[in-house]
Amino acid sequence: QITTLINHKDKPKRSDKTLQAIQRVGQAVNLAVGRFVTVGEAIANENHELKEEMSVACIEARRAGETIAQLTDVASLDHPESDSHITIFTDKTGVVKAARLLLSSVTKVLVLADRIVIKQIITSRNKVLATMDQLEKVSSFQEFVQIFSQFGNEMVEFAHLTGDRQNDLKDEKKKARMAASRAVLEKCTMMLLTASKTCLRHPDCESARINKDGVFHRMRLALEQVIEIVTDSRPNGENEMAPISIYSGIKEFKNKVEGLRENLYFLSKENLSTMLEVILEHTEDFTDSAYTSHEHREHILELSKQAKMELEQLVSVWMQAQNQKTKDLMEDLEVAILKTCQCMNDLKREVHSAATSLAADLLKYHTDHMVLKALKITGVEGNLEAVAEYTCKLSEQKEQLVEMCRLLRHVSGTEPLEITCIHAEDTFQVTGPQIISAAETLALHPSSKIAKENLEVFCEAWESQLSDMSLLLREINDVFEGRRGEKRVYLSLPRPGKHNANLKALKPVKLDTEEQAKIAKLGLELHLLTSDVDSETEKWEDQENEIVQHGQGMSSMAYSMYLFTRGEGLLKTTQDLFHQAEIFATEGTKFASALHALSDQVHDDDKALLLLEAEKLISMCKQLQITAKASAQGKSATFTKVDACILKTRNVMTLLCQLLPLCCKLLRKSKAGNGCLKPAPPWKEDRTRNGTNARTPERRVDTFGIKSLENHVTNMTFLESK
């Protein structure tokens, strides 16, 4: 609204409609400021230490809003210039000054409010820590019950505050770290309850004390990390040094190498050599690992050697090109760049294969949880020798899983997934010894119900983390295949200006801000449809089914077209969009062919329906291809063509949303109950409810187990009365 006022055109003739519109905007700004300031003043009254600063900022904002309202009070004036009354027409600089003051004061109010939120979180954390100190020192069960009830309420408050803060974070890396810390606090709350009760029941048991101390220590670390994220600080002023992954190293290295096409002098050969050395040092995590297969190890070593050779060749041609920029040398440089990048891609693919195949094998092997079951049985029997034997096996399993997490971190593909891998590694590293101490306690006190319950809680945490690893592995594979991360991006596009002479004549055209605004609603509808299609394809047990494959491909392309409407993604120009629309239509035709193939497997009644839908899809795809290939001259015609392509893509996706569940139902029917569907996992429901991408690391943390915390508190109150 402020921008509208400042940018209005000073026309000699001003209609009543224009004058009324300007006055309405001015009044709207003033009313909005009034509502905003009212909230700011209420916050100031509740927080006396910032009351003065907040009040001053609110007064400034209110004054600026009133000034804008006065300067735009022009509707009743027939000739505003001849009147002594100052208006936006006689003093436009006044509106500009008032707008600057308004934006400045509003920013101050927001910053002060943010400081208050941070203070609330710190205060809440301090309360939790103080109560934890009390819990750690209690000696009677009755006293513990009373204090834990208070602790539970404080944790619920902390959960709400940090949950809101997590949703407000824009940095995905911080969001993932916050999610990890809150997940630790959620799981540790129940652990703290059972570990403390076990220690109270068996005060002279050393393993019970070790078990309890481990939980308290982990919770304090998690609380500290939340505060670091909220205040954007590190203890003792130290900088956070996250270990570099192979993926991020290769990505940066390739960017530098490809940058030589534009500038031969922007970095030194020593820089490139150092970057490659760092990457190859990290590959030693794979080659030195006892769990890497011989075949993978050999391939990684071979590709590392090749990468050194390719870089030597690149540096040689690069140095020559710096001295003499001939056509032949530049062509040689281009070949050297391509070969170096291809080698790095091969290396990336090999380490990805090594990490994910190891993870898949380990997760499959440990799904039966045999070691945990054996620990529970031998613990109840009081068989210390057998417990010792199985704790050794659990330690071996822990080392395998920790190594798996380290290798997966190298190939995770995004910073949030890297953080999730680090969190998983820490969880296995800590939970393993805690299970062992809980099992030892049970073996020493085999008739103790609380010791048995305590072991169950820690075993459940281990099983839960293993289950999370299966989802994480899937996410990592999806990112590698281009289906996730910044959502799926279809990579079949030409790269204008790079190695494609035919495209050099095309004039790149982008949508301007106004055009993006016009097409935003259509783009959003397309976005929602891609989510629906993804949801439907994930319900198929046979992910290799041709219908699923084509459906996923079309969803990926439609999503990249949605990103184009926002000015994001790989589709940079309208020509990119039209090319993508053609490929999308071709993929749709292939989907229709898969429907024809399915029609041969179903009953006659269903066959007619499928063939009818297939023909409908083919017709829609042909229309889209015709639109995408049609010529468009001029800005207006080009935008109309863009709008038509997005609209027709949306229509195809709408039909796809109807076809996918129908096909799965018919296939299941034709297989007479063998089933092509798997039951939807619980996290799917969370994803739908939260409206976020469930594959991101924060997929399950919004609730923070607040309900379960409240249940703990209720249970403790019941125990106290009992």
- What is the highest CATH level, the class of the domain at 513-671? Mainly Alpha
The share of residues in extended strands comes to under 5%
CATH topology of the domain at 513-671: Four Helix Bundle (Hemerythrin (Met), subunit A)
Number of helices: 22
Oligomeric grouping of the chains: single chain
**Architecture (CATH level 2) name of the domain at 513-671:** Up-down Bundle
- Rg from alpha-carbon coordinates: 32 Å
Structural class: mainly alpha
Total strands? 0
Helix coverage percent of residues?
over 70%
Could you tell me the mean pLDDT?
82
Terminal Cα span: 62 Å
Q: Which residues form runs of ≥5 with pLDDT under 50?
A: 78-83, 485-508, 673-707, 714-722
Q: What order do the helices and strands follow? A: HHHHHHHHHHHHHHHHHHHHHH
The best one-word shape is: globular
How many strands, what sense, and barrel or not for the largest sheet? Answer: none
- Can you identify the CATH superfamily of the domain at 513-671? Alpha-catenin/vinculin-like
Structural write-up:
The model is unreliable at 78-83, 485-508, 673-707 and 714-722 (pLDDT under 50). Helix 4 (92-137) packs antiparallel against helix 7 (206-231) and helix 18 runs antiparallel to helix 19. The chain is mainly α and 722 residues long. It has helices at 2-6, 16-46, 51-71, 92-137, 141-168, 172-201, 206-231, 246-259, 269-287, 294-323, 327-365, 370-381, 384-410, 415-444, 449-480, 513-538, 546-565, 574-599, 604-629, 635-670, 682-690, 706-721. Among the domains are: 1-75 and 89-113, Alpha-catenin/vinculin-like (Four Helix Bundle (Hemerythrin (Met), subunit A)); 119-231, Alpha-catenin/vinculin-like (Four Helix Bundle (Hemerythrin (Met), subunit A), Up-down Bundle), CATH 1.20.120.230; 246-359, Nucleotidyltransferases  domain 2 (Four Helix Bundle (Hemerythrin (Met), subunit A)), CATH 1.20.120.330; 513-671, Alpha-catenin/vinculin-like (Four Helix Bundle (Hemerythrin (Met), subunit A), Up-down Bundle). The protein has 22 helices and no strands.
